[in-house]
Amino acid sequence: MTVSIPALSSAIHNHRRAVAALLLAAALWSSSGLFIKIIPWSAVAISGARSAIAALLFACWLRPSTLRFSRLQWATAICFTGAQLSFFIGTKIAPAANVVFLNHTAPLYVIPLGLWLLGERPKRADGLSMLVIFAGMLLFFSDGFSSARLVGNLWGALSGVMMAGMIVGMRMQKAANPVESIFLSHLLGSIVGLPFALQETWTLPTVTGVAFLGVVQIGLSFILYSAAIKHVEALEATILTMLEPILNPLLVFWVLSEVPSGLALLGAVLVIAGVLTRACIGSRWT
């Protein structure tokens, strides 16, 4: 994490390189579902070990001895920690497609939270996107009524709620560096999850998988995203990073032959449509 983000950002000086960097970041994010499935640890243990590695990487960059966290940063970090834990637990239990797209229902909650905490009035596109996303969410919960799938879906939905809290918390931090909240969230995640990880069996393949999640899936992807985001428009970034929820279940299907149901696929289409509708129409009317 000693890489200089400004230096890398200047290296990604043209639009084509920025697009490539964002696509690669989204592809790295998408690998989480597969590794959560194949690493033979509990979800909390995997999340804690990954967060410990990520926290060390961010600490090398931020020099945390000089940091003083505000209450808002603590609240934001708690939300992000909750989102990560919920996502990991849900992915262990339910199909990866269900959980990753339920996680992406966050805009459904960002809209009312933004009105309440930021005074942001919903735009015309927001009402339509909320209806479409909510319809997709209902399809996931109609996708079979086995206890395991229902519990996994509930964890996925909770991850979307917590992610919305993190997004709004980030937007409320006018002067603070948002990376500080991300570092704090991984620090909290490691405190919660490392005791579980220490009780697991440590093998070379397992350690390699966890190290990949911490160094590459989180660390490298964050560097790429941070360097590229300044060189693309917000709408374009939204569209490009939607590769993550699409590729996530495809990787799980390719390696583990986990096939999403028809209702889950339809729900995924609606969630993507809702998110992109809000981004596209919202950018046109603002």
From TrEMBL:
Span of domain EamA: 18-141, 151-276
Topological relation to the membrane, as annotated: Multi-pass membrane protein
SUPFAM superfamilies to which the protein is assigned, alphabetical: Multidrug resistance efflux transporter EmrE
Compartments where located: Cell membrane
A GO CC term assigned to this protein in UniProt: plasma membrane
A Pfam family per the record: EamA
Domain of life: Bacteria
The protein's name: EamA domain-containing protein
